[in-house]
């Protein structure tokens, strides 16, 4: 098995949430757990999730490619996703996007040469009143991101 | 204390830290559930109470909750499900996040009561993946509820058993559509299902299922604790209770405000700190980005309830109030909205998959000075060929903004096409910083 025992145990907890004949329901959580461990979802990782849940590999690929927060390619150590939707845009998130691009020297969907940061443009994260909003590695949401707070965040993420 | 306004009932007395079980109990939490189980209230009585309260779905469609619950075949043997839709991703909406992180037990209690009223076996809460810290906090609250005997086997010593679980979304707007959400819960791509059959007869795993929004569930305990009439009296006939509005855009204090349905928009705007200094209201989308935009003069005369907003030509939707001042270029604003629907179309129905791309590309070329006069009619035509021709409402959601922006702000689109620049001068919103401006200059 490609995934660690700790990850498999977490996946088992997810499987237990659903009826015994509906293991596939746990695939979204299983892929999140796998991505947290490996950083991204290679074909091998997705195949092992498929095997573990008794699914056809293609059914797992379908899920992984449908939901945008799964990484189907390696990313930098920190994936920063900034929401640029209209409400956030009216509250300064586009200027924040430019500040991030300037600071990191990369555009959206690019990774810094040192492999530390990948920058992504996100769609609505459900935190519009707290714009600008930056999501770090899908898990930590940072809100009210002024340029100063962005600078501090980049400094903190070593 | 977080100030949600003087009318707040669902968000009353919250300070961001008092979300735990003991805090909720101190606010009369779980009193409604206890009473129901002690008195062995009949499910149909609870459903009748909800009908009387005029509680309407808080997720977008505004469907009467009691009526929806009555569709469940309670006598159907075997598994039946309650699902909470916390996949909050409608641009402008950020209220469910606050409910889940600041008052999670109100949602849990509402879901347990729903389970009892519809004789369901389990409840799933599908939570937006981007708010992971809130997802974890909610799970902690759920564990507290289990430990206290409010959820699980033989709840509070009764013969009612009901399990509850969480399920994460992971970045697909379409999963806020209820049947797409069910597909996603089953571990598939979130592609909406044909209706009928409706979820009440064929839902999760093909079993009877009822899906409500987070805020809808959160209102249920208050109604049963204080009476349906009290809830109805807060709002207006057919529009019971309070509603949490997420006010975003060019206001001084963007945030969530809970007001009585029927409150004038002008008052809500004032609660959000009013327009930013020196600027005046130009337009507002009153119910989330999928709803038609309204110009200031109509908006300032409108009350914030389902029927009044519908009469004004838009919809209350999810309660996301996007406020734009006179600096806003409506072409640029629409371009971003259209990109959102293009990006989020699931691709199942051809009119939406192809049409959202057409809409985005046409608005994009107008914004970038490449538009032609006939594009305006083309946008109308493409919109008409999406709306009403798809399985779910995302198609309509993509078409409505386009039609309403052009209807109310046609002169800005015409100016863009004729003069290859915005009608709005000076600092144009939504505003990019230096880098993008330079890029645009280079491109020109």
Structure description:
The complex is a heterodimer of chains A (158) and B (444). With 158 residues, chain A is of the alpha+beta class. In chain A, 45% of the residues lie in helices and 13% in strands. A 5-stranded mixed beta sheet of chain A has the order 2-3-1-4-5, covered by helices on one side. In chain A, helix 2 packs antiparallel against helix 3 (43-53). By secondary structure, chain B is of the alpha/beta class. Helices cover 44% and strands 12% of the residues of chain B. Chain B contains 19 helices and 11 strands. Chain B has helices at residues 21-26, 31-38, 43-53, 65-70, 95-102, 104-117, 132-147, 178-185, 214-226, 228-234, 265-271, 296-299, 306-312, 330-344, 350-367, 375-386, 394-408, 410-419, 434-443; strands at 81-86, 122-127, 163-168, 209-213, 242-249, 255-260, 263-264, 281-285, 294-295, 303-304, 320-325. In chain B, the strands form 3 sheets. Chain B has a 5-stranded mixed beta sheet with strand order 6-5-11-8-9, with helices on both faces. In chain B, strands 3-2-1-4 form a 4-stranded parallel beta sheet, with helices on both faces. Chains A and B meet through helix 2, helix 4, helix 5 and helix 6 of A and strand 3, strand 5, strand 11, helix 14 and helix 19 of B.
């Amino acid at each position: 098995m490609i995934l660690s025992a700790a990850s498999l145990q977490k996946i088992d907890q997810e499987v237990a949430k659903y009826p015994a004949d509906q293991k596939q329901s746990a695939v979204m959580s299983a892929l999140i757990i796998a991505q947290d461990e490996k950083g991204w979802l290679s074909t091998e990782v997705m195949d092992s999730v498929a095997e573990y849940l008794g699914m056809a590999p293609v059914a797992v690929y379908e899920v992984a490619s449908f939901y945008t927060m799964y990484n189907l390619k390696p990313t930098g150590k920190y994936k920063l996703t900034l929401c640029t939707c209209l409400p956030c845009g009216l509250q300064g998130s586009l200027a924040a996007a430019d500040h991030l691009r300037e600071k990191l020297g990369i555009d959206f969907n690019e990774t810094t040469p040192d492999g530390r940061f990948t920058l992504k443009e996100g769609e609505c994260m459900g935190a519009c009143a707290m714009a600008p909003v930056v999501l770090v590695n899908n898990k930590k949401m940072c809100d009210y991101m002024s340029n100063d707070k962005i600078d501090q965040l980049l400094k903190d993420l070593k | 204390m977080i100030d949600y306004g003087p009318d707040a009932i669902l968000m009353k007395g919250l300070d961001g830290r008092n979300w735990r079980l003991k805090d909720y109990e101190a606010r009369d939490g779980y009193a409604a559930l206890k009473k129901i189980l002690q008195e062995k209230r009949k499910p149909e009585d609870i459903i009748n109470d909800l009908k009387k309260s005029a509680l309407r779905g808080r997720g977008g469609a505004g469907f009467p909750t009691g009526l929806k619950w009555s569709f469940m075949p309670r006598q159907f043997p075997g598994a039946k499900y309650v699902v909470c839709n916390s996949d909050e991703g409608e641009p402008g909406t950020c209220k469910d996040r606050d409910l889940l992180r600041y008052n999670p037990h109100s949602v849990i209690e509402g879901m347990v009561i729903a389970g009892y009223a519809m004789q369901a076996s389990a409840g799933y809460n599908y939570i937006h993946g981007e708010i992971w810290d809130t997802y974890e906090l909610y799970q902690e609250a759920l564990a507290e509820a289990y430990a206290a005997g409010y959820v699980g086997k033989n709840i509070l010593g009764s013969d009612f058993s009901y399990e509850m679980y969480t399920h994460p979304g992971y970045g697909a707007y379409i999963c806020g559509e209820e049947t797409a959400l069910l597909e996603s819960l089953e571990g598939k791509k979130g592609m909406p299902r044909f209706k009928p059959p409706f979820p009440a007869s064929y839902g999760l795993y093909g079993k009877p299922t009822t899906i409500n929004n987070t805020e809808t569930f959160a209102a249920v305990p208050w109604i049963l604790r204080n009476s349906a009439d009290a809830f109805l009296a807060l709002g207006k006939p057919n529009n019971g209770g309070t509603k949490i509005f997420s006010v975003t855009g060019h206001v001084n204090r963007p945030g969530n405000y809970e007001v009585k349905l029927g409150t004038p928009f002008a008052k809500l705007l004032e609660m959000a700190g009013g327009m930013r200094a020196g600027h005046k209201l130009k337009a507002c989308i009153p119910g989330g980005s999928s709803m038609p935009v309204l110009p200031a003069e109509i908006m300032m005369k409108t009350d914030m309830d389902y029927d009044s907003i519908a009469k004004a030509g838009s919809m209350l939707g999810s309660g996301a109030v996007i406020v734009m001042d006179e600096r806003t270029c409506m072409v640029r604003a629409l371009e971003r909205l259209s990109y959102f629907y293009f990006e989020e179309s699931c691709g199942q129905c051809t009119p939406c998959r192809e049409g959202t791309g057409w809409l985005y590309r046409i608005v994009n070329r107008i914004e970038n000075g490449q538009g032609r006069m006939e594009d305006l009619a083309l946008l109308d035509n493409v919109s008409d060929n999406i709306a009403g021709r798809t399985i779910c409402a995302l198609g309509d959601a993509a078409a409505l903004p386009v039609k309403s922006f052009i209807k109310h702000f046609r002169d800005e689109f015409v100016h863009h096409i004729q003069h290859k620049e915005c009608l709005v001068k000076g600092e144009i919103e939504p505003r990019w910083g230096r880098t993008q401006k330079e890029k645009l200059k280079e491109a020109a």
